[in-house]
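Student: Hello, beginner here. Can you help me understand the protein record under this note? Any guidance would be welcome.
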Amino acid sequence: MLLPNLVPNRLEAGCDEVGRGCLCGPVTAAAVILPEDYANEWINDSKKLTKGNRERLTNEIKENALAWAIASATVEEIDEINILNASFLAMNRAIDTLNVKPEFLLIDGNRFNPVYDIPYQCIVKGDAKYASIAAASILAKTHRDELMTKLALEYPGYGWEKNVGYPTKAHRLGLQTLGPCPHHRKSFRLLPK
């Protein structure tokens, strides 16, 4: 069972992002504030869950959270400011759109660049330790996966309906055959040399 909060009786928002290692599409982040007494044994790092479980948990999280928000940084922003800064931008946008202001942020990873004066702590593998970060990872992944599945209909041949933009064999084969599309990140090495 993941921990509910770092400190009891404090409004803590867990934050996580998804899509940093993809060759295309936005980087997406979510921020989630869970009730202190909230517990769900199924909530875990989104990468460890099946697609069906993530989708079920997404509805559960949205219904039970005190607040939740999802935001992205575009491909153009990724190319302009780099993927790390775009990840921070997406997280800050998610935090900014929460309808409840958190007193503290739990950030998945080892670095963060805040734009708001909210205290925070970076937690490596936080999505396997804190329920709010795991919930954020689930919302971000479900949202981004849905977007990439829709984009796969507009841009067939890259396998996005399965790989959601990650550098799989099918995706790279599509790049070799079709070349990049407008959703590919120009600042990334799309094909091995």
